[in-house]
Amino acid sequence: MRTMIFAEFEVNKAFFVQIVTAFIFFSLISTASGFTGYRIGAGDLLSIKVFGEEDLNLENVRVGSNGTISFPLLGVVDVLGITSAGLEKRLTKMLLDGYMKKPKVTVSILEYRMFFVEGEVKEPGGYKYIDGLTVQKGIALAGGFTERAAKKKIKLIQEKNPDEPLYPVDLSTPVNPGDVISIGESFF
After folding, report:
1. Are 57 and 74 in contact (CB under 8 A)?
2. Which of 26, 33, 69, 90 has the fewest CB atoms nearer than 10 Å to its CB?
3. What is the pLDDT of residue 114?
4. Mode of pairing for the β-strands spanning 115-119 and 180-185
5. What CATH number belongs to 45-111?
6. 119, 150 contact by CB (below 8 A)
7. 151 HSE (CA, 13 A, CB side)
8. DSSP class of residue 159?
9. Interior CA angle at 79 toward 103 and 182, to 5°?
10. Rounded distance, CA 180 to CA 37, Å?
């Protein structure tokens, strides 16, 4: 009887480990494309797969400055401002319109568009976005402050709302792809 209970415990333990492993795996998969609700923009690098249709798969397609991509059979497709799930639906609908019966489309964002640092930093310019980026990390990537930098005059111009920059901004403020960190000059 005792052996039977122990064996049942081992089976349940193994099952529990499998469940936890699967949960962790699918959690990582769901966050691999970045943050929820991310909107595709010019400069993003995408992977588009159509299940069972190798000729329609695009591994490294860069979104053009006009917010479009070129897709086999469909031609130019506008992708600006939609989520990866939205693009999956758009491509599925377009492929259903006379090309395929049941297309299964998957869109992944391989690389986000750049963010920018301007003003009083040692190396102003555009930088690759990395997940978890903050104003402080962005400034560090740009070589840090210059001697003339006004460390209290940091402005964040968000791509999603460029007419209302955040000012002054805390160094721990998150930065998104397409955002601009601007550091003012100190006069003393």
Report:
1. no
2. 26
3. 96
4. parallel
5. 3.30.1950.10
6. no
7. 7
8. T
9. 145
10. 20
Write the CATH number of the domain with boundaries 115-185.
3.10.560.10
Structural tokens at position 121: 């930093």
Residues 6+ apart with CB under 8 A from 159: 41, 176, 177, 178, 179, 180
pTM to 2 decimals?
0.71
* 114-167 pLDDT tens trace: 999 999 999 999 999 998 999 999 999 999 999 999 999 999 999 989 999 999
The whole-angstrom separation of Cα 168 and Cα 182 is 10
Contact between 125 and 117 (Cβ < 8 Å) = yes
CB atoms closer than 10 angstroms to residue 88: 19
Domain locations in the chain? 45-111, 115-185
User: Angle CA(108)–CA(114)–CA(115) in degrees, nearest 5?
Assistant: 130
